[in-house]
Amino acid sequence: MTLGLTLTANMAASFKELPRRIVQIRNRSARFGPRNPLGNSTFRTEVSAYRCCSGAAAGRSTHFGFESVPEGEKAERVYKVFESVAQKYDVMNDAMSLGIHRLWKDSLLRLMNPQPGLKLLDTAGGTGDISFRFLEYTRSVREGQLRHRARANQTPSWQEIAAGYGSEGEEPAESRAVVCDINKEMLKVGKERAETAGITTGLSWVVGDAEELPFNDDQFDVYTIAFGIRNVTHIEQALQEALRVLKPGGRFMCLEFSKVSNPLLSRLYDAYSFQMIPVLGEVIAGDWKSYQYLVESIRRFPDQETFKEMIEEAGFFRVQYVNLTGGVVAIHSGFKL
Amino acid sequence: MAALIRSLRAVRSLRGLGSVVATTCPASLYGGLRRGFHRAALLASDSKSDQTVPPPSHHEHYQHEDPWPNTSYQDQSGEQAEDYETEDQLQARILTAALEFVPQHGWTVEAIAAGAETLGLSAASAGMFDNGAGDLVLHFVGQCNVQLTEILAEEHNQVQLGQAEKKKTADFLRHAVETRLRMLVPYIDTWPQAMSLLLLPHNIPESLKHLSTLVDDIWYYAGDRSTDMSWYTRRAALTGIYNTTELVMVQDSSPDFEETWVFLDNRIRDVVNMANTAKQVQATGEAVVQGLMGAAVTLKNITGVNQRR
User: Fold this and answer.
1) b or e along A71-81 (b: 16 or more beta carbons within 10 Å of the residue's beta carbon)?
2) Angstrom distance (rounded) from CA A268 to CA A95
3) Where is the composition biased (Polar residues) (chain B) (predicted)?
């Protein structure tokens, strides 16, 4: 009890100092810029202590890049970031990753290996990259199956013809994709892309928050979230929503930036991220701050093993991850069993 | 302030519990227990309660708590242990259900997806199998071997009880191989695809393991307790017989595979003959050697070299 009292006394004393120290540290980081991201570790512990103390008080804070913002504000600021980058999103993706993001997304689809007839929920799908690839993949698989079936039926015996009488029209089913994003601008860009690509059927566009999906339980076969989950304020809630909307046996897949294990590659990657990417953002999209937020939010996201544990805690089974490009990007996969 | 003290106490008690648990259990159990405590703590502190996964209503219950179901913790996990199943058991069920779609889809991931759907799971759960169709084939082969072992054990019991006659080795081998090959009959049209899958480099260790346990089991129930070179030669011979008969069966179009069984008879007879011939050659060789020795001694006697002075 005395221990508790002394603790609270210390807390009370430091309580008043904390806001002042946070302001000081924020000023410090603004001055030094993002060049020493490791120097913010003390900042992080201050934030967590602050959060622990003011649990009952209003407005817990979370990270927005290397800044700390109240939780309510983060969603709004992320919205603004993506609203401003929406028009140049795809161009910037190609420029920043030198086109490798296409290979990453292709790897995600290959790992998913979807059969025709599945329903996909592409959360934070934005401009629809994953959904387009999903529809293409399942359609080509379906065509292959139809062709195979036609070839097998070249010279049917009378038994096969008789057996086939009842089951006319039993073709492999059509697959459907739903793109869900919190940001209307990104969905608008996505719809325009769908029109130019000529994809008309099997695709829906829904505005929704990953933490509170506007769907019933047990709806989807596959849930993907590509480069979106680090922008979510409460990642655990998003994972639980994913569990809720998936059918039993459904698959959760997450493509996200992660920790690079190789130290040499890590240094090159850091240099590239903090020196090149905001500059590219300014030159191509006219927006330094959004891309500063991008690279900072990547550093704030938990590493592969931690994220795997979070997914397991949400209730998924057989959680595995695969590193791409040496750990720059990781694909996590889990099943609702 | 009261909330502050409450939250501090909760955090401290959790940490205390965590450290106690950590000292007594290995890391894998700690993870599972920690998750359980985490959930309890969340419920206790009246935050937005995370819903536990609702038990699926239309099929069996699944184990939720333990992400590493193969540890012994599984047995202590509570009252409903019999209703819960591990991931491995679920995978086995999916693969068994997938077998009935093999004639239609072949040994492919589509068959697994169709099998999963019959169990009420989404077709996306076929992604659980990293090896895809290879997993399906290996599961089937393992299942057949287990069935064969049960049949042979049953017959062995009957012989022990005196209800049946003990077969001669050649007959026993023939009976065992035929029983095992007959299990392939429902899938014989697609069996070449399965054999090619078994021969893929990353599947070869597993398929070799299945083959060697099969051959070992057959010889064990045939009564082989040898401990010398013949242990290896017998198993090698039976492996050869089995593989060649399987190949013949795949392209056999005679009614009820008669030609395959004739081929099998001939091969077994060859092996038996060769064993007999080997024994004869050895005996003859010994006799010849003795004869030569005798001739040499006689010669020495005649020429008087052997005379004792």
Assistant:
1) eeebbeebbeb
2) 17
3) 69-79
Among residues B210, B152, B202, which one has the least CA distance to residue B177?
B152
Q: What percent of chain B has a predicted confidence (pLDDT) above 90?
A: 59
Nearest to B62 among A237, A244, A337 (CB): A337
Across the interface, whether the CB atoms of A335 and B113 are under 8 A apart is answered no
ipTM score assigned to the predicted complex: 0.73
The token pair that represents B85 in the structure block: 């199943």
Name the pairing type of β-strands A329-335 and A246-257.
antiparallel
Amino acid present at B94: I
Q: Does A176 touch chain B (CB under 8 A)?
A: no
The whole-model pTM stands at 0.72
Q: Which of A317, A321, A322 to mutate to test the interface with B (most CBs of B within 10 A)?
A: A317
Residues in chain B within 8 Å Cβ distance of A251: 122, 124-125, 127
Confidence band, pLDDT 50/70/90 cuts, at residue A137: very high
Candidates B3, B53, B110; nearest CB to A55: B3
Interface check for A145 against chain B (CB to CB < 8 A): the answer is: yes
B61 and chain A in contact, CB less than 8 A? no
**What is the overall mean pLDDT for chain B?**
80
The answer to whether residue A337 neighbours chain B at the CB level (below 8 Å) is yes
Q: Cα(B139)–Cα(B133) distance, rounded to whole angstroms?
A: 10
B126 contacts in A (CB within 8 Å)?
113, 115
Q: Are A83 and A183 in contact (CB under 8 A)?
A: yes
**Residue among A117, A240, A246 minimizing CB distance to B123:** A117
Q: How far apart are CA B175 and CA A75, in angstroms?
A: 72
Where does residue A31 rank: exposed (0-12), middle (13-18), buried (19+ CB within 10 A)? exposed
Q: Which residue has the higher pLDDT, B49 or A204?
A: A204
Over residues B50-72, the mean pLDDT reads 42
Question: Between these two residues, B37 and A89, which has the higher pLDDT value?
Answer: A89
Q: What count of other Cβ atoms lies within 10 Å of the Cβ of residue A210?
A: 24
Question: pLDDT digit string (tens) for A178-189?
Answer: 999 999 999 999
In which element (H, E) is residue A206 found?
Answer: strand A203-207
Contacts of B118 in chain A (CB under 8 A): none
Q: Which residue has the tokens 């940490």?
A: B15
Written as six digits, the tokens of A50 are: 């602050």
Do A113 and B109 make contact, defined as CB atoms within 8 angstroms? yes
